[in-house]
Specification:
The chain has one domain. About 75% of the residues lie in helices and about 0% in strands. α11 runs antiparallel to α12.
Length: about 325
């Protein structure tokens, strides 16, 4: 794998973990996802159009357009599932499950549907993925009667992983048919449109959860409660998240154009450790030091498994 691709993917992993932290802590995760996509698209589209005109307005292959449409639908599903998972579970639970299950699902598809086999090193990688995911999810606790929300978070996180595996495979083909930045601009418009329509229609029809009521904090000293975050602050937060998300995905698209999917996709999961550590240490999502260390260690095992799987021949 080229060193440039490694640098691009590792940088993207950090940016990806960053915008997920902002999404998780935003309150209304679903509408925040729409806004960050809108902001990212508003930044990318003019640049994409200017660059397209500058290089002589080349025709975009029909295959690339159809792949962008398919990926846009899958990304809308991704955001809906991710938002649903974050409403029900902790960042340090959802993020490792969603990101770590994607390469594992890709392997299962290859074995069960395509008749592929695994070399010994790949078996070790799959084993690490399974062990790490089990330690993060702890299904023996998820099926307790009091864990309904926990079970829902696990289910939606795994569905998120499935959508990641699907759109990654589609994008790996689409980005080779035209310039990565051009494919990214087209995809951004399509994905944002599908997501916005899904959220607006879904909430009006009752298919998706409504926006949560704004949290008004009491100061505890008899003074009036503090108002919720203002529109300017919310927009600024969403703008940062949008830029991080846009930057992460563009870096990955460039990496796809110079390196194989089998090596790029697993290495993207290195952000799992950052997200798990942030959720456990900074957001107080674990009940004690032992659980904190266990969750971080489990996330690290997932990353080791993903990288080992990527290096298997």
């Amino acid at each position: 794998m080229p060193s440039l691709a490694i640098g691009l993917v590792l940088t993207a992993a950090v940016l990806h973990a960053g915008w997920n932290v902002l999404l998780k802590t935003s309150g209304d995760t679903l509408w925040t996802a729409v806004r960050l996509q809108l902001i990212g698209t508003a930044i990318l589209l003019p640049v994409g159009i200017a660059a397209w005109i500058n290089i002589g307005r080349p025709a975009v292959p029909a295959e690339a357009l159809w792949l962008a449409v398919g990926s846009g639908v899958l990304e809308a599903i991704y955001f809906v599932c991710l938002s649903a998972a974050y409403r029900r579970g902790a960042l340090s639970l959802v993020y490792p499950l969603a990101r770590g299950s994607a390469p594992l699902l890709a392997v299962l598809v290859g074995i069960l549907l395509l008749g592929e086999s695994l070399v010994p090193l790949a078996v070790v990688g799959v084993g690490c993925l399974l062990l790490g995911i089990l330690l993060v999810a702890r299904p023996w606790q998820a099926f307790q009667a009091a864990g309904r929300e926990h079970r829902g978070a696990i289910g939606f996180a795994l569905a998120t992983g499935g959508s990641i595996a699907a759109y990654s495979a589609v994008d790996r083909v689409g980005v080779r048919l035209t310039e990565p930045w051009l494919y990214g601009a087209i995809l951004a418009v399509i994905a944002t449109t599908f997501l916005a329509i899904t959220v607006v229609v879904g909430r009006r029809m009752g298919w998706l959860a409504p926006a949560p009521a704004p949290v008004i904090a009491s100061l505890g000293d008899g003074s009036p409660p503090a108002p919720p975050r203002g529109r300017v602050a919310s927009f600024g937060r969403d703008a940062v998240a949008g830029v991080l998300a846009l930057g992460a995905y563009l870096l990955v698209l460039v990496a796809y154009s110079i390196a194989p999917l089998a090596t790029v996709a697993p290495l993207r999961e290195s952000g799992i450790v950052l997200a798990a550590a942030w959720g456990a240490l900074r957001m107080g999502e674990t009940s004690g030091r032992r659980e904190t260390l266990t969750r971080i260690a489990a996330a690290s095992i997932v990353v080791i498994g993903a990288i080992t799987l990527a290096g298997a021949k």
